[in-house]
Amino acid sequence: MTLHPTDHAGLEILPFADCLRLLDSVPVGRVGFFADGEIVILPVNYLADGQNVIFRTGAGSKLSSIGSRNLVGFEADDYDVGTHSGWSVVISGFTEVVESEEEIRRLNDLGLRAWARPEEEVPTWIRIRPTSVTGRRTPGSAFGG
């Protein structure tokens, strides 16, 4: 039994508040953007900060090339192979490099840790400000992350 309307494929359409809650339940998503003449999709560890997505990147990485005011796509999901259930949240939005020292201190206190680069390296914080947030869940999945 679905709790929400379904789309043409029978997937449950999730309300905005559920999308935000689900985004906050997994640590890894994918950001897609245009760089060097091609579409690039890269995994990032991230945090939901209100309705925004924030992540860090090192200087010289492909992600650092997105800068501010660029349109990106972001997707996070979870899937249970045993029950064939899962969900996906997709965000379209514009990037913003966080430059305020006060805001950087606040973001640093949220606990997002680097994956591969040394912790000593000063990262660039990127915020995605959504223009749209959509979510889908397979009909049989249990609500949650």
Task: Summarize this entry quickly.
It contains 2 helices and 7 strands, in the order E-H-E-E-E-E-E-H-E.
Ordered list of secondary-structure elements with their pairings:
Layout: E1 12-13, H1 16-23, E2 28-35, E3 38-49, E4 52-57, E5 71-80, E6 85-97, H2 101-108, E7 124-137
Antiparallel strand pairs: 1-7, 2-3, 2-5, 3-4, 4-7, 5-6, 6-7
- Poorly predicted parts: 141-145
CATH class: Mainly Beta
What's the pLDDT, averaged over the residues? 88
| Name given to the CATH homologous superfamily | Electron Transport, Fmn-binding Protein, Chain A
N-to-C CA distance: 18 Å
| Structural class by secondary-structure content | mainly beta
Report the β-strand fraction as a percent range: 35-45%
Taking strands numbered 1, 2, ... along the chain, how are they ordered across the largest sheet? 2-3-4-7-6-5
What is the fold-level CATH name, i.e. the topology?
A: Pnp Oxidase, Chain A
Query: Share of helix among residues?
Result: 10-25%
What are its keywords?
145 residues, mainly beta, Pnp Oxidase, Chain A, six-stranded antiparallel β-barrel, 2 helices, disordered C terminus
